[in-house]
Amino acid sequence: MKKVLFILFLLMGLTASSQCISNQSFTLTPVGPYQPGDVVVVDYTLGNFSQLNANWIIAFQINLGPGWTNLVPLLTPGNPNGSWGNWIWDLQNTFPSGLNFGPGWRFDNTLSLNWGTSSSGPFTMRFRVTVGQTCTPDNLSISMNVFGDCLTGGWSNGACCSDPAYNIYNGVVQLPPITTSNINHF
Fold it and tell me: What stretch of H or E contains 74?
């Protein structure tokens, strides 16, 4: 009986930490560590979005540490077999629930305002960032939040997905050593 309870609690813990999203992956080109001026391309894929209580996927938010600059979208997520509409790049949007979003992609459903897409994926996207010019080891974290329309106020059928941010990179700016020439005293 204890084994059954242990397995049950383990499964509940796994589903609680990732209710709707699964099979996330990423690549960084080039691979870190990074110095000021380095340009990095990030490919991110969400393999599947489970539509808990008809909660549809509506947004991908990119979270960047302060050491990054020049965020540029390169590849928009697809909408395989999804609702009418398309993904749009947005730097900032306040959803009806009050959730402040951006930067990232959000789905513009052309039939039902503030609804996401009925597609369950996969979703692949790409963006580019640059390490800012700095003299300090600034934070270079990158993570991705995936939101369903239940969290944004487009749907309210309870039991929303509240998945944690997916960590893509943790690091700081690697500063090149400072070299000085010899000082001559005459």
Answer: strand 68-75
Q: Would you say 122 and 44 are in contact if contact means Cβ atoms under 8 Å apart?
A: no
3-state secondary structure of 5: helix
Burial (CB < 10 A; 0-12, 13-18, 19+), residue 76, is: middle
Between CA 32 and CA 34 the distance in angstroms is: 5
What are the pLDDT digits (tens) for 126-140?
999 999 999 999 999
Query: Of 90, 1, 19, nearest to 55 (Cα)?
Result: 19
- The amino acid sitting at 118 is S
Strands 39-49 and 21-29: antiparallel
Distance between CA atoms of 86 and 112, rounded to whole angstroms?
12
Residue pLDDT, tens place only, 32-50: 999 999 999 999 999 999 8
